[in-house]
Amino acid sequence: MLVLRREQLSLWDAILPEEVRTFNAELTDVNRWLDDERFMEPFVKKFSTHIGRPTVPVDTYLRLMFLKFRYQLGYETLVAEVQDSITWRLFCRLPLDMAVPHSTTLIKLTKKYGEKTLEELNTLLVPKARRERIIKTKKLRIDTTVVEADIKHPTDAGLLADGVRVISWTVKKIKAAVEKAGENLASFRDRTRTVKPALLAIGKVLKRRSGEAVKEVRKITGKLITVAKKTVTEAKTVLELCKEKSDGRVARLTITLEKFVSATEQVIAQTEEVQSGNRRIPEKLVSLFDPEARPIKKGKLKSPTEFGRKVILEESEERIIVGFPVLKGNPSDNTLLEDSIDRYRKVFHRPPLAVSTDRGFYSKDNEEMLRGKYVPQFAIPKPGKRSAERKQLESSSRFKRLQKWRAGGEGTIGLPKRKYGLRRSLFRGTLGNNCWVALSILTYNFTRIATLSLEAGS
Questions:
Q1: How far is the C-alpha of 228 from the C-alpha of 267, rounded, in Å?
Q2: Would you say 9 and 17 are in contact if contact means Cβ atoms under 8 Å apart?
Q3: Strand runs (DSSP E) across 116-249, as ranges?
């Protein structure tokens, strides 16, 4: 049963002195915004408020998530900090005589509510700020960035070793569950200790940085392919023997094993392609634990290739992020502009008065599209060779002014990455990544709107 709020104060909360019950300026303003009943609507639409066991109140959950992303805390640390702070307890509407929700409860609630519910909260927040005249949202600047997945840097040998490890661990759990029931499985050899020396040998060989070293690495990788193939073959035998097992735990572990066997087979196939000299492999797997993470090149000197997901950040002139769709794969930027304008119109019921992007979004079709959607001003630099007419257009004061304003968007991208956890998603999978991005951006927007509100009131 969905519980929206805990309205009644406990006796202990009521007798606290006023100094203890007073929040700082930022929390006071965020507290006022979160009191709006509109933020309960996405949850009420999806979940019953009459049937089932009472949940942690939605209001409390949102406040806990704000603190988590505002101060970049882990779930366990968040629970410990809220447990220890009277001010944070009061902000989260948790009475002094009540336990803070367990970290695993918060993890399960995030999965239960899902990305769509959390994204809808931002769709409600931004128009509310506009109605209260805190923001105007007349202009729109658009850019893309990469939110890294929580994975180590992938290598062919490392992925093969990971495949051997996770298959061995999973089979070990299946054998323990089956043997507990008085049955036995065919022997499965754990090759985890075989792959470790191979990885260490590759590390030593690569220090030489010579052509011979590359050949030796390929030779070691070939041995790892053989080990991985034997592991996969034996794992398939285990899967065949477990098909008739009705035990729930065994069934769940079997599904997990099937997933890892399939992923390891893909790693073996792509590694054999690399060994044969083909280094361009479409849909290359970069992690067994987050198969949908993609290698994305953004032209950065520090990190030429990032592993994660591409996100569009659509920002107003007040540095409020009004849209943040997470993309599948790495589509070209110039294919994304029309969808961004349509999302803006859906939220604000009118086109932006000005749009500015970098040169990656340029195409003649995009400029025609903006004119067709009645966008009065836009500044998209053209890459490559430009005509005299184009140079004159891009030298105009209006174009330069919009491009200077667009450059400020780099700072907005850096701030959520540095202070709100947007640099790296610690939730796994596409669903987890989308929830992470939504909560990170929502926290940033709440903080930014609170700052603007305080500036307007001063």
A1: 9
A2: no
A3: 139-148
